[in-house]
Each structure stands twice: as structure tokens, then as C-alpha cells.
Amino acid sequence: MLLFLVRNSLPFMFVFAVLGFLLPSVSLAFFPFLPIVLFTLMSLTLLGMKQNELIKRLSSKGIWLYAMLHSAVFMGVVSVIGWWLAFDSDLLLAIVAVGATGSLFATPAIVRALGFDSLQAMAMTIATTLVLPLSIFITLIFFQTQSVKLDWGSYFIRLVVFIFGPMLFSFFVHRFLPEETLSRFLMKISPYTILLVFAFPFGLVGSFRVLFDQDPMMALNYFLIATGLCCLFFALSYLFYRKHGKAIALTAAITSGNRNVLLTYSIAGTLLGPAFLPLAGALQIPTYLLPVFTRWLNRSLLK
In this structure, how many other beta carbons lie within 10 angstroms of the beta carbon of residue 69? Predict the structure, then answer.
């Protein structure tokens, strides 16, 4: 059964988003455990990567240019679109906050499942996460009417736990464990790390179901907006990186389409307004359709 799930992991990500929508009470109950899943997935993914190669990627100019596209450029684009469509202030704040959000920590595992360079995706993910505090601060300054009191202590704790913690853990494991023993361990567990990704769509979509039960038409609007955001981020990133080759373009596109809304909410909380969590929940369905679409697009481009 597990092997079947691994082989069909991309469509099952979407299936778990649907299950979370159909079982909102279970989804909401599972939500508090998502940070533990985040840490585990990040640690296992980093264990399979050479830290010196990852640091080398992070020191390249191209990775930080991508981070600027992922946050600053897209924040500007969605704010103009939101202003043009006359979104109310809460919804405008929510969509710009999504634009400020770094890539999902599950992205490298998804990229690896697609057959692309997971190390590149990991470097992109870390870079976009590191610029998140500045991006979200700018978002709140310009789009939030309350006094801005970011929980910086909470953010830096999460930064250490979810980024530097797994990196240091991986470094020490590679340093002190025999490579042969570690390689055998990784060969056994690596195929199954993708299963942890299923937790995110399942645990995050519950807030969207709550909105759907209260106001189906508003929920539909949020779903259309969420789908539009995913498509916009994906398409613009693909077009921007198309000249670098198909693999890099698709990696950048899916990394841009995946947004770590859980981490953003952990940092800013209620300052993001009442529209953010329902929009974050609505994002789960198109987000986890992106890998399936990307695999189809990859095969189409081969023809």
C-alpha cells in the first residue's frame, strides 16, 4: 500500500486536500501538528543532500534574484491586480501576504518526485524563507491598518528550528556517521518522505471548509482567487526562466506556485486579517494540483 502511495504521490497530494475538505473537523484537529511534520520533512530532505553543495547554491547570485522575483516582484504584481479589481482591504492584505510568503518546505520533495533538481529547489526554498521577515513587514506596513507588532522572537525561533536546525542536524550526521551506514538508511526511507507532504493539504484546507459552510459564494470567490494566484506565480516564473531550459523553468515555476502559508501565519498571526486563513486553505487545492499539471506539462514539452 505504501509503495502504491509513493508511486502515485503527485495525484494523492490533491486527494488528501479533498479529504481535508470533506473531513473538516479532522483537518482542523490535525492543523496544530503540522509544524512537527514540517521539521521532520525538512530534516529528512536535508539529510539526503550534501551541505557544502547546498551552501554553494545559496551563495549564488541567481538564487537571490529568484527570491526577489518570488517575493518583491510578485507582491507588487498582486497588489496592483487587487487594487484594479477593487478588493476590500482584508482580502488585499491576504493576497499580498501570500505574495510575500516563501516556498513550501515540501517543495524539494515534490521537485524530486518530478525528477528535477531537488537541491536547486531547496536553495530557492531557503532563500525565499530568509527574505520572508522583510517581505511580510513591508506588507503589513503598507496594507495593514493596525499597529505592526511582528512576533520577531517567534519567527527567529522557527527559523532556527525549521532551517538552521535541520541543516546543522544534517551536517553533524554526515560528519559523525559512516557514509555507508547513512546511505543505506537514506535508501530505505527516502522514497517514503514524500508521504509526509500529504499532511499539508489535509491539515490546512479545514479553514476553507469552515468558510464554505458559512458562505458558499464567498468561498467560491476565494477558491477562484487562490487558483488565479497559483497560476499567476507559476506562469510568470516559468516565462521568466524559460531561457534557462525546461528543467530550471519548471523547477522555478512550481517552487513559486507552492507557498508556505503556515509559516507566514505562524509569524504574523491575526495581523494578517480575517481573510488570510480561509485564503490559505483555498490555496491547498490548486497548489497540490500543480505537481500533476507540471508532470503533464513536462511530458508535453518532450514531444
Answer: 18
CA distance 254 to 166: 23
CATH code (residue 168): 1.20.1530.20
In a domain, 104, yes or no: yes
Mean pLDDT (the chain) is 85
Taking the CB of residue 5, how many other CB atoms lie within 10 A of it?
Answer: 14
What sign has the CA pseudo-torsion 179, 196, 55, 113?
positive
Which set of grid coordinates corresponds to residue 44? 529528512
Q: Using CA atoms, how far apart are residues 30 and 35, in angstroms rounded to an integer? A: 10
Domain that holds residue 90: 37-192+218-297
Which 3 state secondary structure label does DSSP give 224?
Answer: helix
Cell numbers for 162, please give them. 525549521
Amino acid identity at 126: I
Q: Is residue 200 a part of any domain in this protein? A: no
Each residue's pLDDT tens digit, 16-51:
888 998 999 999 999 888 888 878 877 887 777 777
Report yes or no on 68 lying in a domain.
Answer: yes
Count the domains in the chain. 1
100 burial (CB, 10 Å; 0-12 / 13-18 / 19+) is buried
| pLDDT surpasses 70 at 151 | no
Q: What is the distance between the alpha carbons of residues 58 and 56, in angstroms, rounded to a whole number?
A: 5
Q: CA 212, 218, 219, 225: dihedral to nearest 10 degrees?
A: -170
Which among 199, 254, 251 has a CA at the least distance from the CA of 42?
199
Backbone angles phi, psi at 164, to 5 degrees: -70, -35
Q: With respect to residue 25, please indicate whether it lies within any of the assigned structural domains.
A: no
- CA-based nearest residue to 234, from 250, 257, 258, 255: 257
8 A C-beta contact, residue 70 and residue 259 = no
CB 220 within 8 Å of CB 209: no
What gap in Å lies between CA 168 and CA 211, rounded to an integer?
Answer: 40
- Cell numbers 527570491 label which residue? 67
